[in-house]
Model the fold of this input.
Amino acid sequence: MSKREMTTREPVQSAIEELDLVRSEGASELLRELVSHLRQNRTQLREEWVSRITEARLLTAMTKDEIFAEATSVYDSYVEALETGTFEALQSYSRNLSERIIPRGVETHEVVGIVLLLRDVLARSLFAKYQSDFMKLNRILDAYEPAANRIANTVAVGFVQERERVIRQQQEAIRELSTPVLQVRERLLILPIIGVIDPQRARQLTEQLLRGIRTNRAKVVVIDITGVAAMDVTVANHLVQTVEASRLLGATVIVTGLSPEIAQTLVTIGVDLGKMNTVGDLQGGIEQAERLLGYKVVGLRQSA
Amino acid sequence: MEVPVLKQGEVLIATFQAALSDADLKSLRSNLIAQVVKLRSRGVIVDVTAMDVMDSFASRTLREIAQMIRLRGAETVIVGIQPDVAFAMVQLGLTLEGVVTALDLEEGLAYLTNKFKNIA
Done:
């Protein structure tokens, strides 16, 4: 294939200018030559890539047909990214791909592995093509490497970002689930806290409680911390703040289930719990709340 | 902007319509402590539902109003503090100590009515 033929192909000049890594005219011509080489050998290179993936035991969670289909799309967007020098299409494809394969248990090393394999397969085919002209091979590789690196980078980063997004989403869900504000009686809320409280969770707890007080028109809130193993100064102070903020909304807070360890810690670190209304256990807390609200619980037999 | 003060039985109700300037707060303060004896009120409700920001001056003035009104022989309830505002206030250490607070106007009125009944 002669150079003159290449220059008559459709103009991709403007797109190539975006690829800041390849500035000189010569390099862009080389890239074009490279792209047409990859287009011509599409079937063969793709098959080789897929067989290398299988050999390396990557993407074991997917069937052979699936791998082939995905490989085809990746290959095409790969070549397109090389040609246009823009990565948006590849980026969105890799995000889309990650969305589909993450739930099936595909690991980060597999995704990085297959992209690097493709890079390797393509580089080998370039070696084979230009083995007689060492200078040209050098220049072709100069044009290919930066773009290929950036593509590998884009795909890997896209995958990791998607994973992080999934993890964040799950954390959010767990956090939502972990702070239920429950109404047990008219105007009486309970907030059982279980597990470790970090400052972020403490903050969210307060927000949910304050919102709960407003929507349920609560007058008394029982915060039960039986399930909290340890508490530090920050969290203790946050608890005090929650109590005060609830008071500003007109609700009384009763804290129940302070474990001996926590009681000891709080006294030792000198957190002022004087303003807090504490009761030994949840039952006692609810009983006191009922008294405050003017309820009286009477057994059916006793009343009869 | 002036804060309208309404008389409802034995209770005076002052409702903030928007965020207030320091001067407005001061004039509300003197207005309330003058009216409370003139109208023979036993309770005052300050409704701050419309306030989405509470700075230290506003918070201090509310506390002063409550204390002055107690000296004038009546009781004050602050109602309608928004959840976000409450949290922000507590973080800034503006806890309105010694001031009675209630969820909204209805709650505040119920509190005062109950209190008057117990005293009478």
Summary: Chain A has 13 helices and five strands. Confidence is low (pLDDT under 50) at residues 1-23 of chain A. The CA atoms of residues 206 and 242 of chain A lie 6 Å apart. The longest strand of chain A covers residues 220-227.
